[in-house]
Amino acid sequence: MMQSKLASLTLKGFFTLGLFFGALLSSFAASAQQAAPSLPLLFDARERLARPDLSSLVRLRFLTSVDFPPFNFTDQNGKLSGFNVDLAREICSELEISDKCQIQALPFADLRDALAASQGDAIIAGLAVTPELRRQFVFSRPYLMLPARFVRNLAVPLDGKTAAALSSHPVGVVRGTAHEAMLAAFFPTLKAEPFDTKDALLAALKDRKVDAAFADALQLSFWVSSPASAKCCALFDGPYLSEHFLGEGMTIMLRQKDSVLTSAIDHALATLSRNGRLQEIYLRYFPYGLY
Q: Can you give the residue ranges of the Solute-binding protein family 3/N-terminal domain (predicted)?
């Protein structure tokens, strides 16, 4: 399988997240939408992106996968669902081409070759932007960043509400990840305690073997709100973003020849970001917020 999903999130971690995501979402979303922080705008409000003419477009075929919850997955009814799936439909609606819009799920490892062979027009599946891919494909503007966050054990008293309050406390991190490197670069004075796996890290945090942890906000936001955490912990400070450590964010990948379609998707993403519809999708799938 291609090792290019965003940041340091592992496929196993996404499958684990997916096991309880579907069960939690319906019961938590209504109340959590009122409290979740807003999605940061990634488009300058003063920037105007032209809307290309797509009248000659025969169809727009989005390719995705089913192994990347909550972005793309098969729900309890066997229906293709997720943040990316809903966003693709909103893009088509904004561009007024819903009748020409198709979304197809393929194995993640097959997506790149399928796009290159013109078996689809755009990949919306969490492919990380890499120099190698940029030599072969083009990418839309980012529509979502996956930040890093601290999570703290609520039983541990902290003198302050920022990362500085952790200066005398052990902070866990998963060994060999982008988050370990980011923690060392951003917070060199903090005492880092490395763990071999995410599960080991979270167990240590819950048992107060470390007072806080630094990891991916996506996984942390669902963990602190799940029965697995036993309400021991809460997100703390942040979010922290870094293109160097965490990549360019969530984008849509297209063929190099499709510059007009790429511009149209950028226009749609900017519009959805500004009019709040992207925020609505975000709250639907991230009811506890990442930011």
A: 59-289
